[in-house]
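Quick question: what would this complex look like in 3D?
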Amino acid sequence: MPFAFTRMNKIIGILTGDGDCPGINAVIRAVVRKSIVYGNTVIGFRKSWKGILEKDIYPLDMNAVSDLMAKGGTILGSSRTNPFKYEEGPETILKHLRELNVEALVAVGSLDTLMVAEKLFERGCPVVGIPKTIDNDLPLTDRTFGFDTAISTVTEVIDRVHSTAESHDRVIIIEVMGRYTGWIATYAGIAGGADCILIPEKPFSIDDVCKLIRRRHQRGKDFSIIVAAEGARPKEHNRFIVKTDRVDEFGHKQLGGIGNFIAQEIERLTGFETRVTILGPMQRGGAPTAFDRVLATRFGVKAADMAERGAYGKMVSLQGNDIIEVKLSDLIDKVKPVDSALYEIAEVFFG
Amino acid sequence: MPFAFTRMNKIIGILTGDGDCPGINAVIRAVVRKSIVYGNTVIGFRKSWKGILEKDIYPLDMNAVSDLMAKGGTILGSSRTNPFKYEEGPETILKHLRELNVEALVAVGSLDTLMVAEKLFERGCPVVGIPKTIDNDLPLTDRTFGFDTAISTVTEVIDRVHSTAESHDRVIIIEVMGRYTGWIATYAGIAGGADCILIPEKPFSIDDVCKLIRRRHQRGKDFSIIVAAEGARPKEHNRFIVKTDRVDEFGHKQLGGIGNFIAQEIERLTGFETRVTILGPMQRGGAPTAFDRVLATRFGVKAADMAERGAYGKMVSLQGNDIIEVKLSDLIDKVKPVDSALYEIAEVFFG
Amino acid sequence: MPFAFTRMNKIIGILTGDGDCPGINAVIRAVVRKSIVYGNTVIGFRKSWKGILEKDIYPLDMNAVSDLMAKGGTILGSSRTNPFKYEEGPETILKHLRELNVEALVAVGSLDTLMVAEKLFERGCPVVGIPKTIDNDLPLTDRTFGFDTAISTVTEVIDRVHSTAESHDRVIIIEVMGRYTGWIATYAGIAGGADCILIPEKPFSIDDVCKLIRRRHQRGKDFSIIVAAEGARPKEHNRFIVKTDRVDEFGHKQLGGIGNFIAQEIERLTGFETRVTILGPMQRGGAPTAFDRVLATRFGVKAADMAERGAYGKMVSLQGNDIIEVKLSDLIDKVKPVDSALYEIAEVFFG
Amino acid sequence: MPFAFTRMNKIIGILTGDGDCPGINAVIRAVVRKSIVYGNTVIGFRKSWKGILEKDIYPLDMNAVSDLMAKGGTILGSSRTNPFKYEEGPETILKHLRELNVEALVAVGSLDTLMVAEKLFERGCPVVGIPKTIDNDLPLTDRTFGFDTAISTVTEVIDRVHSTAESHDRVIIIEVMGRYTGWIATYAGIAGGADCILIPEKPFSIDDVCKLIRRRHQRGKDFSIIVAAEGARPKEHNRFIVKTDRVDEFGHKQLGGIGNFIAQEIERLTGFETRVTILGPMQRGGAPTAFDRVLATRFGVKAADMAERGAYGKMVSLQGNDIIEVKLSDLIDKVKPVDSALYEIAEVFFG
């Protein structure tokens, strides 16, 4: 058919970096399926940039991506490898892509991976970015897939503790992900009907929290559910740091333990029995929600279109109902704080 | 405080009409909670407009709405009552609202209820609309709550039948809601990885469906999952009507049975064993998803703001990330068809 | 170690027959894992007895069964092949097993597969049986895995329709699996709080059903939820047969459609709006519940022990808390009807 | 009707004590519904024995228990009140029951509540016991309701963390309930495919755990999931105690923090990145599973029968498939350890 005349088929590479989240496999599936429609071939690289540096390849044909839609995590694996921290790293990336005849590279990741992608693009790497993070704090897109699944998981947990809290007159603290922003805490807190939500964007007063709990008791509500993002910090203790020798998957020093701190303070100041649930990694897992599957699929199909068209140096983005393209160079290394209008809605239901 | 000087507190009425969907109770809760912040009082009317005509009131204080967030259905009940079909109906509505000192009326419903609300507004009724439908085919808003829960339910069903289909080389038809539009079929079909999606907007060819199934067999996929909206219709049988004496909750003649029709045709034409799942009312039920809870809450809070401000003759609407106000008079009695770009994405995965 | 002296390692074959159900893959995983502990090797046969007749083998090492626990269906596939319907069928089975050095064969299936296993055992086949059916109507064992998952699915559906039924004053019929017995209908009906449960073991009177619905209306319950096993039959219409040219996976003529019949009768006799949900194949699917995963694992481990010991001609069985061995020859081709004491408990909540 | 002649209707009291668990409301519903069949009246007492001491009554008619089946927690509330710790406590209990004409008292609870019930029975209190605990470690019954829901919740969490663990080469510790016994850890661990399960019944060696993790790495499994009951203790650190000033709902000093201890040790000894999920109260919450709903309903119906018959001083119990009666005096203040055969099955899948 004439089509075949007008073009040579492309080899498209794909990698997944940073923390995993539900929907990555759905993205991989979508990129592969749409690329096959174009007659292109897709190869995966294992463990993010590491896979290119070591030419560690995962062939991705139609069968390789069947049955992937509902699978959590990423079949390609992930890692913290940053080629710019390796001698000749960027050059090796470009060299290996050339040697493998990879004409377009789809990079799925959070800010770290996408910033690397942009810097490689400036050096001539034909990259297309797909944003992902369960934290929803990535700029330039209304939503990232993974977030909806995370808030569904957390909301279900809040639903579960509600009956216990109510039956036993307890205060229950749920510590959720959100080191720098309170998107998960705020969304899931609203959805779960939390009585108080603590987020990194707004240092809280432990005394105000106790006042709120007492006020609830006065109106006959002898239980309270408090959702705290792991990055939430108390005003009174601005010198308060949770010591830890653990570093997170982004190489940052890991904070945490705020849930236990709040629980101890509340018991000390109010005498009310308090319990803590620390969700940790379960928030990243599970089958993606229908919303995330569709968003991830739309992102993947769009990225395959861009790879076909040669629209490099850009990333896909959700704006309203539409999937659009934005320049990777517009990305700045700064997370997107919680929409204050949304937090104000949450506050309507405090206490 | 000066505030108290400038205004008298309001009595706000609320009713829920048309088919129920997950999130209505979350809306009621939000309207009540935000109104309490304003010092306003909320009363519910039972079974839609019927409750005003019969002064059937449901008092809604803080306790009445606690524990409502996750509850499906509507505590106010619903009905098909249309005051314009009653003699003196509209006048009685206005008279009773005056007698009950209701200064603002929040009407939660689909097109039917909102059109009635608009016509009453033209007669001087201080109405604020909140759109709701699981079908997502309501104009003037990007999304309606209930839809996300419905597609989650349907997607889970598709996931479930997948393993049986695969183990037994079966064709499985899943008949889902969508009398006039294919939103649920398309979204859930993409999310569930359906091999074919049939919607009212695109009359289908049963022969093409069979071709697709055979093509899958040729590449070793001995099973197929087909999602069909109840309103989907075959080209070849454009005279084909499923006879029924049942009318739906909107008073329309109820179509249906397309799932069984397709199954019989496929078995007749291909000889492949075929099974049918007809989801019916379960698609309206269950606890709302986190997404729907937050959307419903934002709608309810916004409606309470509008009732406070006296922004009547309008309805709340989701546009991108924002909750805005649109004129009820801009509503036309016409459903919003599936976004064709979205259906094209679904087609990428057909066969 | 002396152990090695006393024996040569065995090759163990495994096949899965009849309708699939959640937990089969967990059984396969358990047989393989425990056999590896014994130093035995396991090979799978594809599509039940067909796999032995055609020497269609699926190698099952440790990696092949990792990540299988939560997977519905059966990775080995299933079929209705009955070797006794093939000329030289049984002889071929024994011949091929000898040629493949298979010293023990684990047959996972319902009554049909297990009866075949028994007849082959009489001809010298070293078979160990594992009972499975979502219908829970298999004799000689308290429970079969798959059943708990099926009733969980159906119960969730009943929960979902509850809110709609209540909000709209509807009668909702849920047609569930159970061609010959009402185990699923009775268990899920009790768990979902059904107002009436119709099962094959007890022909029902449509008039009594309508009486019950009217009685509920009299006490202000304007909705009713009726769970009907597909094999339930009305007294009044003892000549009533639902015509169908479809045969089920057991080769029996498939009954069905009772849900629609009841709905039409109720609307005709009471005038109450009625809706139907026909669950169909979704009841077989999905990830197994924790209960089914543990039961399937215990069955699989026990079967591996029996294969190691050479305890042939027997099947595993749950008795109280214990997994025991029973003779396949004690199986009779007769399903186990619903425990009448259990149905009486369900009746306490009727009307 | 003659029936009315032969007997006077009874007033039956019911209370729920100790930690809440899914299914208690289903029990209350069943006791009330079956008692109504007998023409008996049921009244609830709020917050366990406290409700009798203070005559704090909750009327339980048919409407009060409708819609209760799926509701977690207990509508009657619970407390740690022990009448024997009050002066004249037991006498007051008996006196108040007489004054309220309560002829039979159904006590739903764990060991603490049931031991109190037995001691009151010896003083003439007409008590019927219903055992409940999510820990499944109550003697004299095969199962308690709440356990199945708890293991379902934990199993889902293990499923969720699996994908993250696999994508990131992590060790993930899941700390679950089980202060004195490892029932939840063992059952959910088997169901979730845990690579190691640590329980109070078997002090563990942290070195063995690290060996196991390293062995997995050697065979290419770079991740491990460890389920630890909160009461699990390491051999090497037999002096190891987690300090805490918190007491649990049984008045015992609360242990805990073992999850963090293990995580730190594993990182220290193996260098592998480790994450912790501490489930806490969410394990008590949520809608009961179908299994727990049916078991709770059978318990409740049986208790209503016993109250009617006057079979006092006994509790209901599940034995195999049957609900039987056992003497409360046979209860000893000692939990039931995990079935060692079950733990051995878990061990098959370790490493």
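Answer marked as accepted. DSSP finds eleven helices and eleven strands in chain C.
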